[in-house]
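Q: Can someone sanity-check these two? First one:
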Amino acid sequence: MEKIQNVDEEIDIRVIIHSLWKGKWVIILISIIIALIVFLISFWFIPKKYSAISYVSIIEPILTFSDESNISITLTSPDISSLVEISTTEALLNKVASSPAISSFRGIEIGPISDMANSSNIGNYLIKLEVISENPTFSMDIANIWADEFVSQVNMQFSVNAVANKLDSQVTDALDNYKNAQANLEDELSLNQIDKYRAQLNNAK
C-alpha cells in the first residue's frame, strides 16, 4: 500500500509540459498584453529623465617661490569631501540658476536645481557632477555651467593664484609696517641727536 501511495503522489513533469504546450498561445498572448500595457504606461504616464554628467579633475597646486629671504611655501590639496560639499552649496547652485544661459528655458517648468543636481567624488582627484531633468538640453547646459562655476569657486579659494594674492597682500602689509617702523626710528634718532647737541652746547657754556 505504501508503494502505491508514493507513486500516486509523484509529479509527472511530462503532464505539466504537455499542459503548458497546449496553452502556449494563451500564455504568449497574455505576455504580449502585459508588455504592451507596461510600454504604454512608461511612454505616456512616466516622464522621461535625461542625465548629463560633467567631471572635474582636482590637480595638486604647485608654487615655486624664490627670494633672498629663503621663504618656502608648502601647498596642500583640499579634502575631496569638502569640495563635494562646496559643489552643492546653495550659493553656488543659485549662481548657476541665475546664469543668463538658463533664461532660454523659462518656458519649461523646472524645479530647484538642488533637486536635480548630484555631486560625488570618484577617488581622490575626480568629482562627478550629474544633472537629471526631463529636458536633455537643459541637463547638458546646467551640467556645463555648474562645472564652470564650481571650478571658478575652487580656484578662488584653493588655487595657486589665490595663495599668491594672499601672500602678496601679506608682503605689502609687512613692507608698510617696516616703513612705518623705520620712519619712527629715524624720528627717534633725530630727537636723540638734538638732545645730544643741546647737552654739548650747555657744557661748552
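And here is the second, same format, sequence then C-alpha cells:
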Amino acid sequence: MLFAGCKKLASISIPGSVTSIGEGAFWGCGNLTSVTIPGSVAVIDERVFSQCDNLADVMIEEGVQVIKWGAFQECGNLKNVSIPNSVKAIDCKVFRDCVSLTSITIPAGVALIKDGAFEGCTGLTSITLKGTPNMEYSVFRNCYAVTSIHCNSIIPPPVDYDIFYTNKVAVNIYNAAKLYVPVGSIDNYKNDKSDWKRFINVVEE
C-alpha cells in the first residue's frame, strides 16, 4: 500500500516500464482525479484505487488482462472507464458502489465477470456487452437506474440467476429496462433458460 491514504496526491503518471501495482497501492487517495494504466501492467491488483473519492476518469490501455477484486470499489465520482479488449476477467466487486458511473461497455475479449462486479452502481443507465462473457450472480445487483442493455451477440451470454436483482420491491429491471439484441436473435433470448428470458421489452437492432 505504497501511496495509500495520500490525500494530497492529485495526479500520477504510471510509466510503461511498470509491470505490476501492489494491492491497495493508491487506496484512499482522495484528491486523485484521473489515471491511465499502461498495458505493461497485466493485472490490476486488489483495491488498488479503492475509495479514491474524486477519481473521475480511468483509462486502461490494451495489454491489461485482469482487473482484480475491488480495484475501483467505492470510487464515488468515477464517471468514465475505458476497458480494452485485452481484458479477460473482471473480478468480484471491481466497480462496486461507483455511483456516478452512467454507462459501461464490456468488450468482446472479456470472458468472465464475477459476482457483484458492478453492484450498487446506482447511476448506471446503459450497459453494452460486445461479446458473451460468463456473468456470475448479481453482477449488476442494485443498479436501479438501468434502462437499456445492448447485447451484440446472437447467442445470449451465459449468466447466473438474478444478475439484475434489486432490493427495492418497486424496481424490477426485467420489466423496466429494454434489452437490445441483434436482428434475428430475439427468439434466442426469449427462449433462453437463464435471466434473459425474464425481460419483457426485447428489441432487435
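A (reply): Looked at the second one. DSSP finds two helices and 13 strands in the chain. Residues 43 and 66 are 5 Å apart (CA to CA).
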